[in-house]
Amino acid sequence: MGIARAGDLSDRLSRAVVRKLGLPSEAVTIRPIGGSQSERYQAMAAGIVHGVIITPPLDVRARNEGYNVLYRLIELNLPFIYSSLHTSYKMLRERPEIVQRAVAALAEIVYFVEKNPEKAKASMAKAMRTNDQEALQSAYDVYARDSTAPWWSPATRSPTRWRSPAKAALLSEGKRKRSTTTAS
C-alpha cells in the first residue's frame, strides 16, 4: 500500500485497516512514497504500489479507469474525526465568544448542506473546478451526508456527531470483472 510518509494519517489508517481486517502486519507492505493523494494514485497507476487510500472525488476517477474500491473505511466502523475545529487554550480563555461563533457557523453549514444538497454540490463544483456529476455526488455523499450523519459510539451506545468514521476508499489495481471486491 502506498502512503505519504511513515506515521502520517495515510499510514495510521492503512495500519488500522490491516488490523481491522485481521491480517497479520507482515502480509501487507506499506510503502512511503510521499506526495498528495493524486500523486499516490499515479504511483499505483504506474505499478509502484498496488493500493492506496483516497477520498472523493478521486475514487470516481479511479473507478472510471478500471480500479476497484475494495472497501470504504466508513463501513469498517473505525472511530475517526474527519473534520475538526481547533483552537488554543488561550483563545478559549480570552475570546470564548469568537470560538462560540465559529462553532455556531460550522453547525449552520452542516444544517445548510443537509437541507440543500443541490446548492452544496454547486458550491463543491466551484471549489473543485469540476462539473462531473458522479464526482460531485460521491464527494457530497462522503463529505456532507456520511460525515454529518450520527455515528453510534460503541462506548456510549448512542449517536454522536463528533466521532464520525473515516471517509476514504482503498483502491487496488485490477479490472472490475476479475475482482471480487465490493464497490463503495
Question: Characteristics of this structure?
Answer:
184 residues; alpha+beta; three-stranded antiparallel beta sheet; two-stranded parallel sheet; 7 helices; 7 strands; 12% strand; globular; disordered C terminus
Walk me through what this model shows.
Residues 150-184 have low confidence and may be disordered. The two termini are 19 Å apart. It is built from seven helices and seven strands, in the order βαβαβαβααααβββ. The strands form three sheets. A three-stranded antiparallel beta sheet has the order 3-7-4, sandwiched between helices. The chain has 184 residues and is α+β, with helices and mostly antiparallel strands. The protein is globular. Helices cover 45% and strands 12% of the residues. Helix 6 packs across helix 7.
Q: Order the strands across the largest sheet as they lie in space.
A: 3-7-4
Provide the structure class. Answer: alpha+beta
Q: How would a crystallographer describe the biggest sheet?
A: 3 strands, antiparallel
Percent helix, as a range, is 40-55%
Overall shape: it is: globular
**Structure annotation, total helices:** 7
CA(first)-CA(last) distance: 19 Å
Order of helices and strands: EHEHEHEHHHHEEE
As a percent range, the share of strand residues is 5-15%
Low-confidence stretches: 150-184
Average predicted confidence as pLDDT: 77
Tell me the radius of gyration: 18 Å
Q: How many β-strands, per DSSP?
A: 7
